[in-house]
Amino acid sequence: VQLQASGGGLVQPGGSLRLSCAASGSILSIKGMGWSRQAPGKQREFVASITNSGSTTMYGDSAKDRFTISRNNAKDAVYLQMNSLKPQDTAVYYCNAFKAVVPGKWTEYDYWGQGTHVTVSS
After folding, report:
1. Are 33 and 95 in contact (CB under 8 A)?
2. Bridge partners of residue 35, in order along the sequence
């Protein structure tokens, strides 16, 4: 499974950004997709996950109430809408996929894509 993330960039505090990720390869093996992130000098962190049907979503504490995960099965893509961004959201955001259990931790993802950088700064 290959995961291609895009949409990162520089945004001011309070602003919004939408990340996208397209899956390719053995996508029939995956049950869902999601995101994790790693801020400079900090441990990797779970952000959000969603099943292929979209019926189940999970959010990390830092993402609740501000981020929304969604997917487009026709495009084998997942999105992360990030609102009310804060400087502490600055991180490399990774696109992920999973084969079975809906992740609630970053360690539970089975596949990793390359990261896209998000910087929240004035």
Report:
1. yes
2. 48, 95
